[in-house]
C-alpha cells in the first residue's frame, strides 16, 4: 500500500533566465513501486525521511539506501531505485533545471558521481519541499518564481544536511574565518591545523565548495569593504588589517574581484558613523526600538 501526490510545472523562458526553475514536486510514502530503469534530461532531488531501499546506477551496482538520505538523479545518467517492499519509505522529490545547476555542481552542492548521499537530518530539506508543495496550489500567480527560489534554498539546505561534512567541515571553516585576516599562507593555515595543504584543500572543498584561497579571500574582501565603508582609514591601513602588507597588490586584487577600486567603493558605499558599525548580528525577529 502506498500514497502518491505530485504536481508538474512548465515555466516560461523568462523564468528559465532566473537560473533555476522547478519542474515538479511530489510527496510519496509506503511500499512504492520501483522507478526505472530510466534516464532524465533534468535534475531531481529525492529526499528520503524514513525507511530504506536501494539504488542502481549506470555501473549496475546496487547501493543500499537508508534514511535519512538524498538521491541525486542527474541528466543523462541511467538510474533504477525503489524502497524495500516490506518497509517502504517516505520521500519528497523536487524536479528542477536551469543554467545555475552547472554552477551548483561545480561548487559541490550537486554530485553527479555520488547519487546516494547520507543526511544527518532530513527535516530541514523536507520543510523546503513542503514550501514548494504549498506554492503549488492552483492559481498561485507567483508559482514559477516562488518555486524556483525554493530550489536554491533546497540546494543549500541539502548541503547543510549532508552527514559527511557538517561537524568537521564547520570546525575547519570557523577556524579559517577566525584567522582569515592574519598574514598567513594556505600552507601556514594547514600547519596550524595539523593538516597537509592537500588535506586542508579537500576539507574546505567539501564544506564550502571552493578552495581555501578563495574562501579566505572572500572573508578578507568582505572585511575590507566594511572598513572602507565604515571608517576613514587609508587604503594602506585597510590592506594591512585584512592581511596584505603590499597596498598596491591589495588594490589590484580588490579591483579585480569587486569590479571597483577601493577608493571608488568607499565613495559609493561610505557610511561613516560615530563609534563605527556594530559587530553584533541583529535578530530579524526582534528589531531594536528607537526611544523617544
Question: What topology emerges from the helices and strands here?
Answer:
Elements: E1 2-8, H1 13-16, E2 21-30, E3 35-38, E4 43-56, E5 62-66, E6 69-73, E7 79-83, E8 89-97, H2 100-106, E9 116-118, H3 123-135, H4 143-161, H5 166-179, H6 186-192, H7 197-208, H8 212-230, H9 235-241, H10 247-258, H11 262-269
Antiparallel strand pairs: 1-2, 2-8, 3-7, 4-5, 4-6, 4-7, 4-8, 6-9
Helix pairs in contact: 3-4, 5-7, 9-10
Whole-Å distance between the termini?
64 Å
Cα-based radius of gyration, to the nearest Å:
23 Å
User: Total helix count?
Assistant: 11
| Strand segment tally | 9
Give the SSE order as H and E letters: EHEEEEEEEHEHHHHHHHHH
Biggest beta sheet summary: 9 strands, antiparallel
Overall mean pLDDT: 89
Characterize the overall form: globular
Helix content: 40-55%
Assess the beta-strand content as a share of residues: 15-25%
Q: SS-based structural class?
A: alpha+beta
Poorly predicted runs:
none
Summarize the structure.
This protein has 292 residues and is an alpha+beta fold.
Account of the protein in words:
- Strands 1, 2, 3, 4, 5, 6, 7, 8 and 9 form a nine-stranded antiparallel sheet that branches.
- The protein starts with a strand and ends in a 23-residue tail after the last helix.
- Helices cover 42% and strands 21% of the residues.
- Helix 3 (123-135) runs antiparallel to helix 4 and helix 9 (235-241) packs across helix 10.
- A hairpin with a 5-residue loop joins strand 4 (43-56) and strand 5.
- The mean pLDDT is 89.
- With 292 residues, the chain is an alpha+beta fold.
- It has eleven helices and nine strands.
